[in-house]
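Researcher: Go.
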Amino acid sequence: MTAPERPAAAGPETAAGPGPAPGEVAPNRLSRALLVAFALAVAVDLGSLLADADAGHTVAKPLLMPLLAAYVLTRRGPGLLVGALLFGWGGDVALLFDADIAFLLGMGSFAAGHVCYLVLFGKGRTHPVLGIAYGIALVGAVVALWPDLPAELRIPVAGYSLLLTAMAYRSSRLGPLVGLGGALFLVSDMLIATGVADWPQLPRPDFWIMLTYVGAQALLAQAHREGLRTTD
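Model: Structure:
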């Protein structure tokens, strides 16, 4: 009777799963590369705004959300999160054009992204005091801005503000980082609204709008770490 053969020792591929096929990039390496590319695009965009280099902003801004969405995809994030980021890209591109119709189209694209976020965040509990604070902020902002907004934009801006505030409030369900992202999105869009209402602005207002917006989307993208992975 012979002794049973001892199985061969597992190599690196069998111990950690199959490696990438020849010519493919490992998911972790691809994720890191996309994150670096996103950070570089952010630096170019913000630097261009500070330097009044319109060409740099025009080139870099449309790259931001596709790079962030691609990063989320490599991390197997949920489709709703990818959709929200890509709707943000649609809004970014529309707002590159200085026309009322472009502003409305951009606002509509961002609104679709907020719907994706709201569905993604689900129905878990959030703090009621925070909801009251967001409600007061919403009413105060709409009442204050209303007289100074162009008449044709008042109702669309009010409706969009309601949706945005709901998204910001619900984002807090996923923890402080994602909740901060929702709050920053609200700040960014408030800066845009005050510009439309012709209120006094900070120096380099476009820089502050993009800084808070990019920070908001980057933090909201952390929802992929919160157990929301789906196959939708």
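Model: Residues 6-17 have pLDDT under 50 and may be disordered.
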